[in-house]
Each structure stands twice: as C-alpha cells, then as structure tokens.
Amino acid sequence: MLCEACGYILTGLPDDSRCPECGQPISDSSPTLRHLPDWEIDNTAHTEIRRFWRTTAAVILHPTRFYRTLATRGHRNKSREFARTHWILVTLLFGWTGSLQLLWMLGITSWAGTPAWARQFYDLSNAGPIGSGLLLAIIGFLPCCALTYAVLIGATRLAARLTAWEARFRNIRLPHDVVLRGLDYHSPHYLPVAIVAFLTVAGYQLLLVTGILDDLSGPRYLYILCAEVFFAAAYLFRTYWTGMRNMMFANR
Ligand SMILES: [Zn+2]
After folding, report:
1. CA of 204 to the centre of ligand 1 (A)
2. Phi, psi of 214 (to 5 degrees)
3. Is the pTM of this model over 0.90?
4. Residue 7 CA to ligand 1 centre (angstroms)
5. pLDDT tens digit string along 96-136?
6. Which of 73, 117, 179, 205 is the most exposed place for a label (fewest CB within 10 A)?
C-alpha cells in the first residue's frame, strides 16, 4: 500500500493516521476509492452507447477525478474496445478534415491559382457525381484516414513503451499493461482536437466558397492552423500527464 500522493510505503500504519512523508490522510489512498468506469460496468439501466458517452464525458471534463478513481489493474478487453471506437471516430473526422485541407492545398476549393493540368485532372464536373465522390475519396479521404489511424496507433504504442520504461527506471508503479489501460482512456482527448480542426478547416472553406474571405486570407488561416497544432499537442500531453500522475501510485 502506497501513499497515492507521494508514493511513500504505508503498509502497517493505522487507517486513520496521515502519511508520514506528505501528511495526506491515509484514507485518501484507500484501494476502495478506485473502481471500474461506467463503460466497464454491465448495467441494464444504461445502454452501451450511453455508458460510452458517460465515460467519454467523465474523461474529457474531469480527467483528474477520472484517473484518481480508475481501477488501474483491470482487464484491457473493454478499455481497448473503448479506445478503438474513439480512434475510429477521430480517424473519420481527421480523414474528412485532411481531405478538405488537401483540396484547398491543390487549389480546388476556390479554383483560383490552380495550374491548368491540375484543374483538368481534378475537374470534378466531368466525372459526374459518383465519379467525383470516388475521386475525392481516393485522392483525399482514404489516405488521410490511413495516416491518422497509423499515427494514433504508433503514438500510443511509443508513449506506452517510453512511459513503462521510465517508470521502471524510477521505481514507479506503472507497468506496460497499466500504462496501456490508462492510454486507452486517454483516447477521448483526441475528440475535441479533431472537432476543432474540422471546424477550422471546413469553416474556412465555407467562408471562401461564400465569398466572405478571399484567397489572400490563406497565410493567416495557416497561422491559425499552426497555432492549433501547438495547442493540441500541449493539451494532449497535459491530459496524458494528468492520467499517468494519478495512476502512478495506485493501490488498485
Ligand atoms: Zn504521502
């Protein structure tokens, strides 16, 4: 039994006393404070979809409380399913956003400044509605989806390896399985990032198509996108850190 605030070993001390190292009440480190998230509790009162979104909201709105009360050593079957659903949602959203951005970069959104060969090659009006839909999917959507999913899987695996490796080095209670379970529940944090990115890219193109903004606004738009990438990275790292910080001395 460890103090969940500082990692001091509490075994043998009375339940109503305080941690000799940091002064935190020992009852705050009780294993009974940790439980399965809504998603993992088969509850006939809530459908699976409802449990999915309740857990998603708990992770996004109250990450500290969520990780502070998460049973860290549960099975990964359910948590992996939770993460996969989020990854698929985010992949579809980023695939869509990426293909829109690609079309803008190719100059197709506004047609102005597009080289003649590209205009001919991507002339969607000649391809008919089904043909242009397929063409858009092939040149944009599918590669963007594949790239997003690969990055999500790759980043998660890398983060899990590095975290578990550092934890072992520093004698922290975060074995690889526990880290992976924690990262499964970190997956909802990609959702706000994907939504903001989609709204930015799609919103900008809507403003272009309706003529509210002209092509000269391009550089400013790219600055905004760059700033969003920076804030997204900071947000994802911060929430990852909150998760690991609140799991690393977990007693259950
Ligand atoms: Zn302590």
Report:
1. 50
2. -110, 180
3. no
4. 6
5. 999 888 877 776 555 555 555 555 555 555 555 566 666 76
6. 117
